[in-house]
C-alpha cells in the first residue's frame, strides 16, 4: 500500500525554514490574540459590566466561530493554498483586535471576538499544510509538534508584555498594539510564505513514493496517484479522521479552558496568587511545551503504531494533576501548581497527534479538509468546557466574588467532557484498527510487544 507524494524532493533547508518560520510567526500572533482575553478577564468584567457566564460567552463565541470555520477553511485551503489564507486571516484578526480596543458595549465586543475567531481559524491549519510541502516526511511529526508548541508561546506574549501594557496603559492601547502586530504579520506572510517549492518535476520513473504508514496506522486501500477532488464525505467516512478528531477533542480542551479564560482567575482569586505569579505559571507552561513537543514528535515517528498511547498517557496525567489540586480544600503549594500546568502542556502536545493521524490516513489532496475536521474536535470540546466552568461559577457564586471552593466545583465539571472525549477516542481507535486489519496491518497488543522485547533482551 502506497501513496504517491504530491510534493517534489525536499526544498533547500534555509528556504524551507524561512517559509515555515513566517507562517509560524503569524500563528504565534493568532494565539496571542486568542489568549489575550484570558489575561484581561477581570478588566473585561469591569469594562463591560458583565457576569462570569457572560465573560465566558466571549471565549465561547470566539471558539464557536473558530470551530465552525474549520471545515470551510480546510476546503478553502485545499483550493487556494496557505499563503493567501494566512495573510488574509492575519488582517481579519487585526481588524477584530482594533475593534475590541475601541468599543465599550457588549454586542460590539462580541462582534469583535467573532472577527478574532475567523482570523485565528486560518492560521494553524495553513501552517500545518506547509510542513509536508517543504520538509521530508521523516521530519513532519516533529515539525507538526513544533508548530503547535511554538505557536502556543503566543500565550507568553499575552501573559507578559500584553499584560504589562494592559496594566500600565489600559485596555485600548493594549489591544491596539495587538492589532498592529497582526497587520505586520499579514504583510510578512504575503511576502515570505509560498505554498510549495518551485522545483522542476522529476521523471515519472523517479517519482517519490512513500509507504503510508511504514509502521503507522494506515487505511486498507491504496490511494490513487492522480489528483483527487476534495470530498468532505470521503474525509468524514475515514475512521482515522475520527481518531484524529477525538484525539484533539480530549487533549486540547483542558489547556484551552485554563489558558484562554479561567486559568488566571483560578490562580489569583482561587489560589491567592498575584497576577505576576499567574503570568509566570503560564510562561512555564509555554516553555515546557517547547521541550515536550520535539520529544513527542520523535516518539510518534519511531513508534507510529503506539501514537494513541501518548494521548491516553497525557490524559491520565492531566486527570491526576487536577485531582491532586482540586480535592484539597486549601490553596496548593507552588510545586503542585507547576505539576498542573505541566500536565496541561502535555495534553496540548498530545492534541497535535490528531493531525498526524489525519496526515497518515487521508490522501494529500484532502489534507486541508481533514486537518480542519480534526481541529474542530478540540475547539468544540473547549467551548463546552469553558462555558460549563462559567455556568457553575455563576450558580455557586452569583455575586462574582469567587473563592477556592467555587473553582473546585467549576473545574470538576470538566469531568463530563473527559468522559465524552475518552469514549469517542477509544471507539474511533477500535474502528481504525479494525479497518487496518482488513488491509493486513495488525496492531499487536501491548503485552505481546513487551513479551517480545523481554525475549529479545534475554536472547541478546
Automatic annotation (TrEMBL):
Homodimer. Interacts with lysosomal protein GLMP (via lumenal domain); the interaction starts while both proteins are still in the endoplasmic reticulum and is required for stabilization of MFSD1 in lysosomes but has no direct effect on its targeting to lysosomes or transporter activity. Belongs to the major facilitator superfamily. The chain crosses the membrane at residues 12-30, 50-73, 85-103, 109-131, 143-167, 173-193, 242-266, 278-297, 309-329, 335-355, 367-389, 409-428. InterPro entries: MFS (IPR011701), MFS_dom (IPR020846), MFS_trans_sf (IPR036259), MFSD1 (IPR052187). Lysosomal dipeptide uniporter that selectively exports lysine, arginine or histidine-containing dipeptides with a net positive charge from the lysosome lumen into the cytosol. Could play a role in a specific type of protein O-glycosylation indirectly regulating macrophages migration and tissue invasion. Also essential for liver homeostasis. This is Lysosomal dipeptide transporter MFSD1. It comes from Georgenia thermotolerans. The keyword Transmembrane helix applies. Residues 14-433 form the Major facilitator superfamily (MFS) profile domain. It is found in: Cell membrane; Lysosome membrane. Its main location: membrane. It comes from the Bacteria.
